[in-house]
């Protein structure tokens, strides 16, 4: 019977049905069932329920303990009682206490018993109901379930530790506790202590040591601030001197660049020896206070490292993520990251998740913060095994850590460890927790630490002497005291923690932002020819066949190159030069606005073809993927991927620019600030389709103003291109410079197929990215009295209306790169128009959005005397845009008319005011200053 899968099939009613079927036609059943029922009949059975209720009940008993035993396990270190589980009562299996001494065998229980029901129940309770509770019956993969049962049940879920192994765990607990208490005595300030969860240290060290034993070469970690300093000291071996200097304020900065961050947000990386005498690299990524943001970032880092190390089996580099219980349940990025974990383009081969379950979230109880029994319940969607473990049992903690790393390496799946513990102090060390949890903190005050409890256990077992215990504490204190003195005397120097060797040669403070980005005509023609050529037997959609042919013809003709073609040429030239490209986003393969078509689908078979991966025998690879419907986690992943390897061009595209809203925390706390806080460079490209085209509030604005408000200290680039050649050069520039900065591209929508915006081939072969595009029309500059500065597609509306009105005294200048601000280029442009007395900024967005507030002071500082500065655009608005297409057109007419000083009909103005659109409470205005 051990070969039957009783996880799903062992229930009496189902087996009774099989038996009735057997009686009618034995051959209709599998051979294994035929053999079973034949043996049953030979033993004199007359019916499943009559003859073998105990046999079936025993199998159900084993299954139920595997399924529900965790509900009665002793998991809470504070000893608070848990509800009983009536489904584990013997009566549920047609048994009672009179059956306890009957011989029942062990069903498919993998451990040894004496054959009695009593011993079987006892072994099941020891395996699943002591200080380890396991959830794994819901896993659909039978092999995974069997693997877990075969490793837990023979040992009753207990490790057989030698005295040396027990003492090693004890010393880690001593070091962790002494570290926290020493800092508390010396510096009574915030440190987000690990006290109450010190078992996290041996847990992580087991993962590190066991990982090294089975071939792991690198572990990438992410965690919140709780316990971070202790993990840095006792897992990553960050020197005490450096940590203490951060408290004392004596650490010497590596350089004066940036603003730095608080000590419990910082990252670190180190090669450390293991118990197997092998070195393993461990990196802990820096993390902001938005606790779970680091999750997809670490996953992206791991995926990038796996790719450049050719770790196709995903066994060499693994992610380990730590979470707080409240944050794991409450922050949606957790579920988004779990959703990515099994998708082909984002798999990392499984993550070990450690939930440090303090049973409190700041001041919020679990009952107030979630409706499920465990914080890990949200993870059941990915069918990961879940180990719940009492943090006051460090041997059990070490055991589940070993199981977790072995399971991850065996099956390349996520694993959850729910470490039940408590928080000895408040949210921080100056917080008073008894204000809100008086009863809980009375229990905690009276509760012995895990170090004390484990010391007493080992003393009872004779595994440690009091002298050995005293020596451990003495060694730990002396190390801390000595490090404290050294920190004062030597003033250790901080160092960048997580930049790997691939970043060597990259400069953090570029003096020259330009790059040679031109490409010979022959190369561009070869790219166009290769992408237009279909594989043998491949049938493209007829419209796409014409599109690819048109792209080739435009390159041959040297003009009419549209946005899709310009982007294709830019990416193709980088691929030929050996730069891998990773391009992701919702609908990015086709392009939201059907302009890219980087992946073609056979019109008859559906087979996919990526033309840019068939340019030459030796070329880099384009990986372009449609993503799950997530912005926050996906952008975090792509940011992490880009931060690990500067040799890749990594592009994330929002379906609409507005959708970047969902990823704002990643932008604020990583993309905009990581270099200043943590001295980490990144070259991620964000494409945000942007432009007012009457598509309503949610599809008009990529929040240009938000990005500009985040710009400082040359932290990133914001570009609003208006010609395909500009996108070609800006993508190539991103790779061709010896530094990396995030790039925000406000991409157009209606311009994608707008003829006047197309480029000539000479712009690709002879030019570079133009930060400012002067007026291309043939006007007499000395006759110009008004200069209209603008960005984006409003240029074409202005230029069309001006040319129609045959105006000669207005110049229209495009600012293509808003940040870093092109001051020299704008000054050079102004110098060409010596008679200009009106310098204007024109934008489509409302006055409180777009580029105006960023440009206002900068333009005013450059005004030639006696020029004035004027704004033309929509009035202030709470909503990004009107929902009425008619009102949108009327507003744009007003902007253009005011900017060009053309007569606007009173009817138009009256109609705008009368429409009462929420986004147009005030009509488009002009303000002279």
Question: Secondary structure elements and their pairing?
Answer:
Blueprint: H1 6-9, H2 12-24, H3 31-42, H4 48-51, H5 53-68, H6 117-128, E1 132-135, H7 142-152, H8 163-186, H9 200-213, E2 218-222, H10 228-234, H11 240-248, E3 268-273, E4 279-284, H12 294-308, E5 317-324, H13 325-330, H14 332-340, E6 352-357, H15 366-369, E7 386-390, H16 394-411, E8 415-420, H17 438-446, H18 450-461, H19 466-490, H20 521-532, H21 542-557, H22 563-576, E9 581-585, E10 600-601, E11 608-609, E12 622-626, H23 632-644, E13 649-653, H24 664-671, H25 674-678, E14 685-687, H26 704-710, E15 717-719, H27 724-735, E16 743-745, H28 762-765, E17 772-773, E18 786-790, H29 794-805, E19 810-815, E20 817-819, H30 823-832, E21 838-846, H31 852-861, E22 868-874, H32 885-900, H33 906-915, E23 925-928
Parallel strand pairs: 2-4, 2-5, 5-6, 6-8, 7-8, 9-12, 9-13, 13-14, 14-16, 15-16, 18-19, 18-21, 21-22
Antiparallel strand pairs: 1-7, 3-4, 10-11, 15-20, 17-19, 22-23
Helix pairs in contact: 5-6, 8-18, 8-19, 9-16, 11-19, 12-23, 20-21, 20-22, 22-27, 23-24, 29-32, 32-33
In short:
With 929 residues, this protein is α/β, with parallel strands linked by helices. It has 33 helices and 23 strands.
Q: Into how many domains do the coordinates divide? A: 4
Q: Number of helical runs? A: 33
> Strand arrangement, largest sheet?
1-7-8-6-5-2-4-3
Largest sheet: 8 strands, mixed
What is the name of the CATH class of the largest domain?
Alpha Beta
| SSE class | alpha/beta
CATH superfamily of the largest domain: Thiamin diphosphate (ThDP)-binding fold, Pyr/PP domains
Q: What Rg do the Cα atoms give?
A: 33 Å
Q: How many beta-strand elements?
A: 23
Helix content: 40-55%
Q: CATH topology of the largest domain, which one?
A: Rossmann fold
* Secondary-structure arrangement, i.e. CATH architecture of the largest domain: 3-Layer(aba) Sandwich
State mean pLDDT (0 to 100 scale). 90
Low-confidence stretches: 1-10, 43-52, 905-929
Strand content: 5-15%
Gross morphology: globular
Q: Give the CA-CA distance, first to last residue.
A: 89 Å
